[in-house]
From TrEMBL:
All copies of domain Pyrroline-5-carboxylate reductase dimerisation, residue ranges: 163-266
Family: Belongs to the pyrroline-5-carboxylate reductase family.
Protein name according to UniProt: Pyrroline-5-carboxylate reductase
Domain of life of the source: Bacteria
Organism in which the protein naturally occurs: Isoalcanivorax beigongshangi
NCBIfam families to which the protein is assigned, alphabetical: proC
Gene3D superfamilies assigned to the protein according to its UniProt record, in alphabetical order: NAD(P)-binding Rossmann-like Domain, ProC C-terminal domain-like
């Protein structure tokens, strides 16, 4: 693929993780630009990653072939409208990682540029993310590859043909880490109730969660098969799982993810 320059509007945690992942995958820092209002943060990023930095969004936009919009949703319109004159008449791929900001919004504010909307999740901060991607028809195959190169630097990427699918992605993987954190909290609390000291309970729960995820990722078997393999009839695991089933864990999870999907749809409107 031809060389291209990448600009980040906003240098928060997700943008910084993407930059770190891209550099680790071989993208030269000289191709990366970052802007932010925090000059001290930018100075640290320049020292750490050797990327170009600026407090002027327009300066970044004028330099780059790909523009990653990494600002908070509530300021996205103002930021985009201010950048529109810098992008006019140019072929710039716009990638947005802001939740709830639609392609229609972005093109109304920036102009009719090729847009990819991305829904990453926080494990991207440790290069273990999952990102849903949607592209408008004007995004070329080469630009799709650019989007995957950028978002795929911090984990797995998945393309969807309908933008509305990103609401389901938000419910499953975007918000998903919080569900697992809640389960971890509950298991740690239960462990202390059973007599373990809190530090030990936390280590046991976190290691078990990590190990279960690694086993599920590397095993050829699906999670339901893995569950059956560790559940002996009449045993301790079966006793715990029976309680989960009797108290409607599956229905609760389904209702929770539906609520997250519905909220994502509402925010987009």
């Amino acid at each position: 693929m031809a060389q291209y320059s990448i600009g980040f509007i906003g240098a928060g945690n997700m943008a910084t993780s993407l930059v770190g992942g891209m550099i680790a995958k071989g993208i030269r820092p000289a191709r990366i630009w970052m802007s932010d209002l925090d000059g001290e943060r930018l100075a640290g990023l320049r020292q750490q990653h050797r990327v170009h930095v600026s407090t002027d969004n327009a300066d970044i936009a004028s330099q780059c072939d790909v523009l990653v919009m990494a600002v908070k949703p509530q300021v996205m319109e103002d930021v985009c409208r201010a950048l529109a004159p810098q992008l006019a008449g140019r072929e710039v791929l716009v990638i947005s990682i802001a939740a709830g900001v639609t392609v229609a919004n972005l093109q109304a504010w920036l102009g009719p540029h090729p847009v990819v909307r991305a829904m990453p999740n926080t494990p991207a901060l440790v290069q273990a993310g999952a990102t849903g991607l949607y592209a408008v028809d004007s995004v070329s195959a080469a630009q799709r590859e650019q989007a995957v190169q950028i978002l795929g630097s911090v984990g797995l990427t998945f393309w969807f043909e309908q933008e509305s699918a990103l609401d389901a992605v938000t419910a499953v993987s975007g918000s998903g880490p919080a569900y697992f954190f809640l389960l971890m909290e509950a298991m740690i609390d239960a462990g202390t109730e059973l007599g373990l000291d809190r530090a030990t309970a936390q280590q046991l729960v976190l290691q078990t969660a990590w190990g279960a995820a690694q086993l599920a990722i590397t095993s050829p078997n699906s999670p339901d098969v893995l569950r059956q393999q560790v559940t002996s009839p009449g045993g301790t695991t079966a006793a715990a799982l029976d309680v989960f089933e009797q108290r409607g864990l599956r229905d609760t999870v389904n209702a929770a993810l539906s609520a997250a999907r519905d909220r994502s749809e509402a925010l987009a409107k």
